[in-house]
Design a protein that fits this description.
Blueprint lengths: L8 H7 L4 H27 L3 H17 L3 H15 L3 H24 L3
Length: about 110
């Protein structure tokens, strides 16, 4: 599923009226909350709890969208859809892909000084 833009800084900055301080705040909150979101999502995947996967993937999709993590948000969207469709076979693969995309996104953020 990976492909395309990792980080849409221009898009997120347009949505924030070019407020760099606000973006930095959002990134800080994301960095604090992401491990918790990942933990509850990982638990839901391990239990093959479709409703919980759907809920937590949706939450993570929104958080990723707020910080411009385009590819990771797309994978979270696919995981949310798998939860809705009760496609537990795809959960583990999509979770691993999501975690990898988040690592790539965080590395790119750091490279850009965020």
């Amino acid at each position: 599923m990976a492909g395309g833009e990792v980080f849409d800084l221009d898009g997120v900055m347009r949505r924030l009226d070019r407020d760099d301080a606000l973006f930095r705040e959002l990134v800080e909150v994301f960095r604090e909350e992401q491990p918790k979101l990942d933990g509850v999502l990982s638990l839901a995947v391990s239990k093959q709890d479709c409703d919980a996967v759907t809920l937590h993937a949706h939450s993570l999709k929104g958080a990723l969208g707020n910080v411009g993590a385009v590819r990771a948000s797309g994978v979270a969207r696919a995981l949310e859809a798998a939860g809705r469709g009760a496609d537990a076979v795809r959960f583990t693969v999509l979770l691993a892909e999501l975690q990898a995309e988040i690592r790539v996104y965080l590395a790119e953020l750091s490279q850009r000084g965020y």
